[in-house]
UniProtKB/TrEMBL annotation:
Role description: Necessary for efficient RNA polymerase transcription elongation past template-encoded arresting sites. The arresting sites in DNA have the property of trapping a certain fraction of elongating RNA polymerases that pass through, resulting in locked ternary complexes. Cleavage of the nascent transcript by cleavage factors such as GreA or GreB allows the resumption of elongation from the new 3'terminus. GreA releases sequences of 2 to 3 nucleotides.
Protein name in UniProt: Transcription elongation factor GreA
Domain of life: Bacteria
NCBIfam families, per database record: greA, PRK00226.1-4
UniProt keyword annotation of DNA-binding present: yes
Family: Belongs to the GreA/GreB family.
UniProt-listed SUPFAM superfamilies: FKBP-like (SSF54534), GreA transcript cleavage protein, N-terminal domain (SSF46557)
Amino acid sequence: MAINYMTKGGYDKLLEEIVYLESEERPSIIKQIAEAREKGDLSENVEYNAAREAQSILELKITQLKSLVANTRLIDESHIQTNSIQILNKVTLRNIKNGQTTVYTLVSEAETDLKAGKISINTPISKGLIGKKVGEIAEIKTPSGIIYFEILSISI
């Protein structure tokens, strides 16, 4: 598996999710399975089958999160600079075509949160912005065509 770079905050959030899934969700599903078993014939017990499927999905999610944590390297945020765009920068962009201004923070895949304006470093927009400086025009190749953004500011 590839190495994942993330902030301490994102890493801690992953650990909290694992603890929650193991300490809250897992016992709840185990209880559901036990209650369904008590109802008799397991071959036609819909509740039992649903609980077992939920358990499988939960265990897969826990395994995936643990794998992600095992392959994570923390980013030292004190070394983040703003002379050119890089991961963890907050970037203000102006769409050349329509004049719309947008603010994005470039983060790791695991920390992506579109509602908060955090986009993955692996998106076409991020890839087109990396290394650009304030005042430059970024040509972003997207599935819907090329978009031109002017970089207005870079911050942390």
